[in-house]
Amino acid sequence: MTDEERAALRARRTAAVNGCDRLLSAGRWPTMRERLTRLESYDLDGPPDMYGDGPVAGLEQRVAELLGTEDAAFFPTGTMAQQVALRCWAGRTGNATVALHPRAHPEVHEGGALGAVAGLRTVHPTREERLPDAADVRDLAEPFGTLMLELPLRDAGFVLPSWEELTATVAAARERDAVVHFDGARLWECTPHFGRPLPEIADLADSVYVSFYKSLGGVSGAALAASADLVAEAKAWRHRYGGLPFQQWPAVLSALYGLDHELPRLPGYVAHAATVAAALREALAAEVPFFRVHPQTPCTHQFQVWLPYPADVLNEAGLRQAEETKTLVFGVWQEGPLPGLSHTEVTVSASALEWTEEDVADGTAQFLGFLRAGSPRSTHR
Predict the structure, then answer these.
(1) Sheet bearing 302-307, strands edge to edge
(2) Number of structural domains the chain divides into
């Protein structure tokens, strides 16, 4: 596909999503004007930040209070926040080896930056589609300075361990004299699964990164929360990495909006995700010879759906459904590890709360109708 074709397809999808009356998975991105309108609820007559003071410092204090840590540092991206955190821990432990899952964000989505930029090395306690457990950590054949746990593990299906498993894994890392860092880009929505408040979860780790745009709908930005001395060191590295722009107040205010308006709604999204996942399983089982809703009961408000069709066929069916019925059930599909097997991520948020089990069943049946009409191809006949 050429760049022009990709741009045309992206424009078509944007128009289709924006034209929908009903969206099950996630929703349309707000316009720039809509985002600016939201910020009017905050004090826009005050002075903006300058190199990390003012609103930036206020957000950092808010995050530290929410997570129960001594301090926090705002970063323009989570990628930078985590690289800085892991670099700091390597210096403090004297060990530049980071133990993490091969599906973790730095291994899949950062172009090898831990090694190329920070000079770190990674090892994998397990390759199974789950977080490392205590036995994996204890049995790792070589020393490591930091254990990084992504909560939830997004590319494996937004999966989480139980609270007992998580605490045991952390304890195993301590036994090996390693520090623990949480990739908590989506930590905000983990509290229902663990049955613990955010400070109790964050207290297990030596440092925690959280995102402001993935679940909270902010413009951009992240925070690294930890002890005051680690945050001070991280801020020094933040400056070296070019992560201290002159002003960042639009991103900061949108982060505050997410904390004020989206964070309280996340438990409701998680609860409704279980209803949506069950309805999808029932609807797909009636008409598709092979499928997976993974996990069967979502750990958060996000999960995967797998179908035995090429991604382009599934995406075309979804676009036609959106264009012709103003209803969209699934987002973008991607090819899986086998040809003709594809998956999509379902995010249950505000737009999905009005969907009943019957609505999910009807929308799914409608999508499958467009799929059959467009192409009967399947890897399972």
Answers:
(1) 292-294, 302-307, 342-347, 333-335
(2) 2
